[in-house]
């Protein structure tokens, strides 16, 4: 129950940060940002592109992180999609780009960190960042920034230099927040791995006993 509460709270924070970025006209990174760019280029609905891009990451998550993590990730992605969709019910408003970049980036950073610490993610490169931390002990915040930076650079041609630089500032803030919690995120990943070993040992013991 406690984990479920924090997952919902993490999704809520991430959704609020995303809405702030949208109203500040600041670009996001990851598979969501890449899907948005490709949907414009190929004239294909965003949802279809986003779904297709994430399929390989979900397969990878099942193989490396297990079904519990993958199902929780699917739930988290669905929650964020629903919560950000509620933006259309809000009155129209705008936020200055610099303010939106800083505030939105920080809130998203706290939201994603909370999800990571509760053994879930928002799919795509989030999954890859957690796997590389689990296997190679790499900093998930720096990995997140690298992936997002590449996406934002890819979209520079369509958003312009100013918006591009503010987008980089935003993802840098997000990644800094995630890096701050990297030890707690690592502990959560180790806990997941430990539980997996316990289950595997119990299954082997049961087979031998029978």
UniProtKB/TrEMBL annotation:
Keywords: Cell membrane, Membrane, Transmembrane, Transmembrane helix. It comes from the Bacteria. It is a multi-pass membrane protein. It is found in: Cell membrane. InterPro entries: UPF0750_membrane, YitT. Signal peptide: none annotated. Its main location: membrane. The chain crosses the membrane at residues 6-24, 36-59, 65-86, 98-117, 149-174. Pfam families: YitT_membrane (PF02588). This is YitT family protein. It comes from Ectobacillus funiculus.
